[in-house]
Design brief:
Layout: E1 2-9, H1 13-22, E2 29-33, E3 46-48, H2 49-54, E4 62-66, E5 68-72, E6 77-81, E7 87-90, H3 92-101, E8 109-112, E9 116-120, E10 123-126, E11 130-139, H4 146-150, E12 158-167, E13 174-179, H5 181-184, E14 188-194, E15 197-204, H6 211-225, E16 233-240, E17 247-248, E18 251-253, H7 269-284, H8 291-311, H9 317-328, H10 331-340
Parallel strand pairs: 1-2, 1-11, 2-8, 5-13, 11-18
Antiparallel strand pairs: 3-7, 4-7, 5-6, 9-10, 10-11, 12-15, 12-16, 13-14, 14-15, 17-18
Helix pairs in contact: 1-7
Length: 342
């Protein structure tokens, strides 16, 4: 049986970031991707400035550098024009291929169409028949993580995201967030600009609103907004925000497999990058600590508390959302929020 120092399951942002750091060492590293392509994930495709600080993304994969945003409630709106870009939109496949390219000419072994079908202590089975040994295992294999299942960690906190990619020759490079308790409850709808298209979607907790109800409400909202999706591509996917730790002996959970997404917004790329690099550094130094990961966990915890307030607000939710927009029209509040992205 062939044995590796580190096997990384899943070639998303977390797994590839982990591999990139380990590629600078003498460790024997294997990264496995069950699909034939990298980065193929339902996602609005937004990167914050914090993500840009971790990986210096080239302009070639950036579609829009966003400085303008608009936040809508049912009765109000708040608009912001930041002095510098705070959000960058990318195509996830191009993002994944670019991250994969960072491993070119390294000793990291990359295999796609390689599905892990079984996890055991110190070995895995690939495509049902090939056994591979490991000293460390990194689970970066998303919502349905087989590594997480091996650790017997259920996913109880989750969201459902639905999205259309709408072709459009001219796209206004503005991010829109729509708070509408009538259609989305405690969550929101979004419009993200891309090159010759825009992503329009919504998210909710299926325990509080069924996926069918969300889809019906979403379509009513699209009609109300006059957004034609007859030629659009529809996608849907679950999102886990059920964090229960990232290190379990010689096994790590990173990205969505570790439940690092935000339960309020669904965002997860920055969290994935931080958790992936933390796993790599911890493999190299068992005493490693990460202030960035601590900040991610704290940030997600605060958002979860806000979510609990919103989800229990009942008939007060609409007025709370109106108050949020009123506050965001305050110059001091706008400056604070803009700073939080940097």
């Amino acid at each position: 049986m062939k044995t590796y120092d580190v096997i990384i399951v899943g070639a998303g942002p977390a797994g590839l970031r982990c591999a990139q750091i380990l590629s600078k060492t003498d460790l024997k590293v294997l990264i496995l991707e069950k699909d034939g392509v990298f980065g193929d994930k339902v996602c609005a495709g937004g990167l914050t400035r914090k993500s840009m600080e971790i990986l210096n993304f080239p302009d070639s994969i950036i579609e829009h550098k966003i400085t303008r945003t608009a936040l809508f409630s049912r009765k109000r709106k708040s608009q912001t024009n930041a002095p510098e870009p705070f959000l960058f939109t990318v195509k996830r496949k191009e993002f994944g291929n670019w991250q994969k390219g960072l491993l070119k000419d390294t000793q990291v072994e990359i295999r796609n169409n390689a599905k892990v079908t079984e996890v055991q202590a110190n070995k895995i089975v690939v495509n049902g028949n090939e056994e591979l040994g490991y000293k460390y295992l990194v689970g970066g294999d998303g919502y349905n993580s087989i590594v997480r299942k091996f650790l017997k960690l259920p996913v109880e906190k989750k969201l459902i995201g639905i999205q259309y990619t709408v072709p459009a020759p001219d796209v206004d490079p503005r991010l829109e967030i729509h708070l509408n308790s009538k259609f989305f409850g405690a969550w929101y709808g979004w419009i993200f600009p891309h090159e010759k298209s825009f992503a329009v979607g919504a998210v909710c907790d299926p325990k509080l609103m069924s996926s069918k109800k969300l889809k019906d409400n979403f379509h009513h909202w699209l009609e109300e907004k006059g957004i034609d999706v007859s030629n659009a591509v529809y996608e849907s996917a679950p999102i886990s925000y059920d964090y229960r730790g990232y290190k379990f002996g010689n096994i790590f959970l990173v990205g969505e497999a570790g439940g690092f997404a935000s339960g309020l917004t669904g965002e997860g790329i920055y969290q994935s990058l931080v958790s992936g690099e933390t796993a790599a550094h911890t493999i190299l130094d068992k005493n490693h600590t990460s202030e960035d990961l601590d900040a991610v966990i704290k940030y997600n915890s605060i958002q979860h508390k806000i979510l609990r307030v919103f989800s229990k607000a009942g008939f007060l939710l609409g007025p709370i959302q109106e108050l949020v927009v009123i506050l965001l029209n305050n110059k001091w509040v706008k400056a604070k929020i803009n700073k939080s992205f940097s």
